[in-house]
Specification:
This protein is α+β, with helices and mostly antiparallel strands. About 45% of the residues lie in helices and about 15% in strands. Bound molecules: zinc ion. The site of zinc ion has 9 residues, from loops.
Length: about 100
């Protein structure tokens, strides 16, 4: 499966979920599904563009934040992808104190 095919599949799933959102009882769950699917699409698109970022560790060595969007990751976990902007993270950098 190519990136393009994966994005198309994810978009289909979003469409599918949207069509189910008339059911009030489940709409919150579907909304979360859509959010996750959209996140996946963003991640693939960022990956294709080859845009990367890195976790910057402050001089206190404790609070990492994304070099592009400036967001701190939940639980200060330096994940492979920024949970906020979806960029792939490369080697963390220590800011010069
Ligand atoms: Zn980011």
């Amino acid at each position: 499966m190519t990136n393009k095919e994966a994005v198309e599949q994810l978009q289909d799933l979003i469409h599918d979920r949207r069509s189910l959102m008339t059911d009030v009882e489940y709409s919150d769950i579907y909304k979360q599904d859509i959010e996750a699917l959209q996140f996946g699409i963003n991640a693939i698109e960022q990956m294709e563009k080859g845009e990367t970022a890195n976790w910057i560790i402050c001089c206190d060595g404790y609070y990492p934040f994304c070099s592009v969007c400036g967001e701190e990751p939940p639980g200060r976990e330096m994940s492979m992808y920024c949970p906020n902007c979806g960029r792939r993270m490369v080697t963390p950098e220590r800011s010069k104190a």
